[in-house]
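Appendix B, record 7
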Amino acid sequence: MTGKLAIRLGRVVVILLALLLLEGIVRAGAVSRLILSPPSTVAVKAWEDIRSGELGAHLAVTALEFSVGFVIALVLGAALGTLFFRFRVVGAAVEPLLLAFFAAPTILLYPVFVTLFGLGSSAIISMAVVTGTIPIIVNVSAGLMGVDRIFVKAGRSLLATPWQLFWKVMLPAATPTVFAGIRMGFTYTFISVIAVEFLLFSGGLGRLVSWRYFVFDTEGLYAGVAMVIVIAALVNSLVRLAEERVRVRHTL
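Structure tokens (predicted):
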């Protein structure tokens, strides 16, 4: 058994044991079902949501808002991160401000975005772009700055053009740090979309969870939360897979 397979099996075992423990606690009456639902009934409710199409309708809204927000954050973050790398003085002046802003609870700014863009997808996407762009900017800039100068000198000795030097040498060397920023950007963009949907009650998975919270539909609430976690885990796995393929491609 390889190390990666053992780790994955270990994760599955831990998750199953945690679910079995929750199932036993709730069914034993140690916790009220108004507070916590058995995982088995949550799974049944999630399946009913999938079959009825209710989940799909909300998922489509969230997927659109997240996709638009993440693509904008990715393009903007990569462009500004490269700009800060090329112009070090600008980067040194701006990046500490971005990190300070990122460390603050930016979700509290949602009333500002609502005032500017109204109660709709525009406010949600704008908020997601702000929260998702910053980690990408910082990691792209840091990754490019952290490239070993030996690689750069080797590329120049082979008469590589500035464009070739960037794409063939610097970017592959910065891949681990850059993809770390992309994963963070994905995570914060997704969290922001769900959180603002929950607060604005405008649509998407956040609205589904919010509505079920207000009507005390405990099973439906946890089913919605479970689907959000599963979707986030799947997409994050795809990002990791893309990172591994990029590394292998540039290694060969």
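Remarks on this record: The chain is about 85% helix and 0% strand. Residues 218-251 form the longest helix (34 residues).
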